[in-house]
Automatic annotation (TrEMBL):
It comes from the Bacteria. SUPFAM superfamilies: Cytochrome P450. InterPro entries: Cyt_P450, Cyt_P450_B, Cyt_P450_CS, Cyt_P450_sf. This is Cytochrome P450. Keywords: Heme, Iron, Metal-binding, Monooxygenase, Oxidoreductase. The keyword Metal-binding applies. Belongs to the cytochrome P450 family. The keyword Heme applies. PANTHER family: BIOTIN BIOSYNTHESIS CYTOCHROME P450 (PTHR46696:SF4), P450, PUTATIVE (EUROFUNG)-RELATED (PTHR46696).
Length: 405
């Protein structure tokens, strides 16, 4: 993709909803050159794709928008990973990779970590509550999710910042056009994260614990003998994917939710006065501006979708964010309304690839809104710091979120 194409992609990714609306109104599917894929934006069509994984493969789900430079690739070659992961696998292999994650993020495990999440949320808010202003993404939204998923995985707390940084840098490297020196620096951060995860894997082989890293290791590489190099690569790939999904998505969800609540002051004031509405606000925020806007799928055989004939090997972009603004399922879909009667949305996917960490993300947002509305009811957007959305359909959020009050 050249620079001009990237600029066009950036423009509509910062606000994809008008493009989704046109795609929903069009007859059949819409081809989007910037994505090199057909856009699937109607609720019924998105659900059909997600319910037919045998016809729509996830193998290309993580296809990057940018190919790193040879120098950056050389740096990445010193790291670990590069193996298929749960989000980009199909069939039996997908089930094998998903099973320990589902167990590790069970309702009981999530409930057990919530006191820690609440404690850390309160401590992070303590850090800026008296300052009169804060950039919420860096001070809070990029920190709480990493600390929580890090605890579940079994990371040393001292290693969490490097792992979180590595996750953000991996996303930049594969989805943003960067100068070569920045690509190399990003690749160095990714490799540093991978070496931390490799050390964790080898430590858990020697000393298993009651954590998700140990569970994944015992499920995917049973036994007590030393891990082969290939097994180490595989374990790091799975952990990296889990951690990125576990903190980047929740970071984005926190940022977009606070942004839209503060843009709709009546909704914010309602939550401050009636905190029992917070769970409904979580669902409305996820529906209204989904943190994960969608994933790619590739047809495994000739199929017809929405009247459009697609050959085998054709890419589609399954837009959860588009489906969630479909008026056929959600009346007045472009209105942000925390009093909306609940209707199941697709912010966390559906079917065999539905997000196993959805409840953990919801609970962290619930804790966040409880903390902020109780302690900082006067919070508002800084008038002199306009909000710009990150140009991505993966982990959509504000680049920065300056608040005062």
């Amino acid at each position: 993709m050249d620079r001009e194409q990237h600029d066009e992609l950036d423009e509509w990714q910062r606000d994809p909803h008008p493009r989704y609306a046109r795609a929903r109104q069009a007859e059949g599917l819409t081809r989007v050159a910037e994505l090199d894929a057909w856009l699937v934006a109607r609720d019924a069509d998105v659900r059909e794709v997600l319910r037919r994984p045998e016809d729509f493969s996830s193998a290309g789900a993580l296809r990057p928008d940018v190919l790193p430079s040879p120098a950056a690739l050389a740096v990445l070659g010193r790291g670990f990973g590069g193996r298929p992961v749960v989000v980009s696998s199909d069939g039996r292999r997908h089930q094998e990779l998903r099973a320990p994650i589902v167990r590790g993020l069970s309702p009981a495990r999530v409930a057990a970590v919530l006191p820690y999440a609440a404690e850390r949320a309160a401590a992070l808010v303590d850090g800026f509550a008296r300052d009169g202003g804060v950039e919420l993404m860096s001070a809070y939204a990029e920190r709480l999710p990493g600390e929580v998923i890090g605890r579940l995985v079994g990371l040393d707390p001292a290693d969490v910042p490097a792992v979180v940084r590595g996750g953000h840098r991996a996303e930049q490297l594969l989805f943003r056009p960067l100068p070569e020196d920045e690509q190399i620096a990003a690749a160095e951060d990714v490799v540093a994260m991978q070496h931390l995860l490799d050390a964790l894997v080898r430590d858990r082989r020697a000393r298993p614990g009651q954590d998700l890293a140990s569970d994944m290791l015992s499920h995917l590489a049973p036994g007590q003998e030393d891990l082969t190099l290939d097994e180490r690569h595989e374990q790091v790939a799975h952990l990296q994917n889990l951690l990125l999904a576990g903190h980047l998505t929740t970071t984005a969800l926190i940022g977009t939710t606070v942004l839209h609540l503060l843009r709709h002051r009546d909704q914010w004031r309602l939550l401050c006065a009636e905190p029992e509405r917070i769970p409904a606000a979580v669902e409305e925020a996820a529906r209204y501006d989904s943190p994960l806007q969608g994933f790619r799928r590739v047809t495994t055989r000739p199929v017809t979708l929405a009247g459009t004939e697609l050959p085998a090997g054709e890419a589609v972009f399954v837009a959860f964010g588009g489906a969630n603004r479909d008026g056929v399922r959600h009346p007045c879909p472009d209105a942000f309304d925390v009093t909306r009667a609940p209707v199941r949305h697709l912010a966390f996917g559906l079917g065999v690839h539905g997000c196993p960490g959805a409840q953990l993300a919801r609970e962290q947002l619930r804790i966040t809104l409880t903390e902020l509305t109780r302690r900082l009811p006067g919070l508002r957007l800084a008038d002199d710091r306009p909000v710009t959305m990150r140009p991505t359909l993966i982990h959509r959020s504000p680049q920065h979120l300056h608040l005062v009050g």
